[in-house]
Design a protein that fits this description.
The chain is α/β, with parallel strands linked by helices and 264 residues long. The protein has a single domain, classed as Rossmann fold (3-Layer(aba) Sandwich). It has a seven-stranded parallel beta sheet, with helices on both faces. A two-stranded antiparallel ribbon has the order 5-9. Helix 7 links the parallel strand 6 and strand 7. Helix 2 runs parallel beside helix 3, helix 2 packs across helix 8 and helix 5 packs parallel to helix 7. The longest helix is centred in the middle third of the chain and has 21 residues. The radius of gyration is 18 Å and the shape is globular.
């Protein structure tokens, strides 16, 4: 698998910490030429410094995925620097609670801007480039939460569902042009986003294990990849539950302690 990524040009958003930062370090260690993007320049500088200290190179492009013009500018800078972009990983996103009885429209709007439009702003600029070359891969990091509307997660679940459907439609359209599209659906991963005790997080996995699984899915050009397998199984069971049972069972299992609207 390491040989596959050697000399690949990979662009990763949401790389200030968590999955994005760890995936960048992993692929750079395998010989990929990695470019990373996030809003926090200091976090990107720290990532680049860690990689240089380990004999690896990662290039930083500060930016906000909600800024379509900036993402297009980064595309231009990447192509000018490397000549091509092989893999784009749209990883930037936010979580949060937005319970129906206290639904916050502003929080919902911000979640949509980052998770939905941010994903589109990241991937869309690279489509003409990949179609012209008739190769490349677009990767979106969604969530297992996108397969059904979970308690207190009207904003989060709906945006993750929209990501999944968006990626699926792109996959159908771009297949004939040699461009692969992969939708990644993690369960709970040990990152700053899950560093709280607002609700139970079963089968939480180390971030490096998550990065290895994502890399394998990219290598295999998987259409859709769900992990870890126990959460994947629970997700498919949830999808089969009739509404009357789902409505009664899931609120009891979710265990939210104080469901106030807020980003996590």
């Amino acid at each position: 698998m390491k040989d596959y990524f050697r000399d690949k040009v990979v662009f990763i958003t949401g790389a200030s910490s968590g999955i994005g930062a760890d995936l960048a370090e992993l692929l750079a260690g395998w010989g990929a030429r990695v470019a990373v993007c996030a809003r926090r320049r200091d976090a990107l500088d720290g990532l680049c410094e860690r990689c240089r200290g380990a004999g690896r190179e990662v290039v930083a492009f500060p930016g906000d995925v909600t800024d379509a013009a900036r993402m297009a500018q980064i595309r231009d800078e990447l192509i000018e620097r490397f000549g091509r972009v092989d893999i784009v990983v749209a990883n930037a996103g936010v979580g949060g609670l937005n319970p129906g009885e206290r639904f916050d429209l502003d929080l919902h709007r911000r979640t949509v801007e980052i998770n939905v439009m941010g994903l589109a702003n990241t991937l869309a600029p690279f489509i003409p480039h990949m179609v012209e070359r008739r190769e490349g891969q677009l990767v979106g990091v969604s969530s297992l939460a996108g397969f059904r509307g979970l308690p207190c997660a009207a904003s989060y679940s709906s945006t993750k569902s929209q990501q999944w459907v968006f990626l699926e439609s792109l996959r159908v359209d771009l297949r004939r042009w040699g461009v692969a599209v992969t939708s990644i659906h993690p369960g709970f991963v040990e990152t700053p986003m899950t560093g709280h005790d607002e609700f139970p997080m079963p089968f939480k996995m180390p971030v490096r294990r998550s990065s290895l699984l994502i890399a394998r899915a990219i290598r295999r050009r998987r259409a859709t990849y769900l992990y870890p397998w126990p959460m994947k199984l629970l997700t498919w069971v949830n999808r089969l539950l009739p509404p009357w049972l789902f409505d009664r069972l899931l609120p009891r299992l979710s265990g939210h302690r104080d469901p106030r609207p807020r980003m996590l």
